[in-house]
């Protein structure tokens, strides 16, 4: 299976480390894996023109249209990995979501599988996890993604606080 990991973090901390380890885990399990670090890409903000809803193509010509869209189309499944910022997805990831509007028709006819990894800062942040999972659930429903049964939600405040344990490895094995 071809899997695209979309890393929506603004820094190289816990999410970045998870993505690096996940790449190894999924490759060891025989998957072909590509990582899209949104931090390394510079693409414009969606201007809301909605021309893409008629044409299936974004009018903004940049690396999103030319590099990221082909990766999204080529993959069989995705892992969305990100920290939680103010009970929501990071700005980089929100822009990513907005720019995928041009792919709504494509995804309606080509179902992709989706797994989610979230990092929150406080153990009491269950509301933050729920808020982001609800948002991503609604996005998944619009796009027609098939969600995995279990998401991974961890608490880590410091950049080097999170490590993959056997429980997380077991969840990852069920994803694809």
Q: How would you portray this structure in words?
A:
The chain has a single domain, classed as Flavodoxin domain (Rossmann fold). Helix content is 43%, strand content 19%. It contains seven helices and six strands; from the N terminus they run E-H-E-H-H-E-H-H-E-H-E-E-H. Strands 1, 2, 3, 4, 5 and 6 form a six-stranded parallel sheet that branches. It is globular and about 45 Å long.
List keywords for this structure.
6-stranded parallel sheet, 176 residues, alpha/beta
Task: Please provide a brief summary of the model.
The protein has 176 residues and is an alpha/beta fold. The protein has helices spanning 14-28, 51-55, 63-74, 91-99, 104-109, 126-143, 166-175; strands at 2-7, 32-37, 77-83, 113-120, 146-147, 152-155. The protein starts with a strand and ends with a helix.
């Amino acid at each position: 299976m071809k899997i695209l990991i979309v890393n929506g973090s603004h820094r190289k901390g816990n999410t970045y480390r998870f993505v690096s380890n996940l790449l190894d885990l999924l490759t060891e399990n025989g998957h072909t894996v590509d990582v899209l670090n949104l931090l390394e890409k510079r693409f414009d903000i969606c201007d809301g023109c909605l021309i893409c809803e008629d044409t299936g193509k974004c009018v903004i010509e940049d690396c999103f249209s030319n590099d990221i869209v082909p990766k999204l189309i080529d993959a069989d499944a995705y892992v969305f990995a990100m920290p939680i910022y103010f009970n929501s997805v990071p700005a980089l990831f929100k822009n990513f979501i907005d720019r995928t509007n041009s792919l709504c028709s494509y995804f309606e006819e080509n179902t992709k599988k989706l797994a989610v990894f979230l990092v929150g800062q406080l153990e009491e942040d269950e509301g933050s996890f729920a808020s982001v999972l609800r948002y991503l659930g609604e996005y998944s429903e619009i796009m027609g993604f098939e969600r995995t049964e279990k998401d991974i939600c961890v608490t880590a405040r410091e950049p080097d606080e999170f490590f993959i344990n056997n429980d997380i490895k077991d969840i990852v094995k069920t994803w694809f």
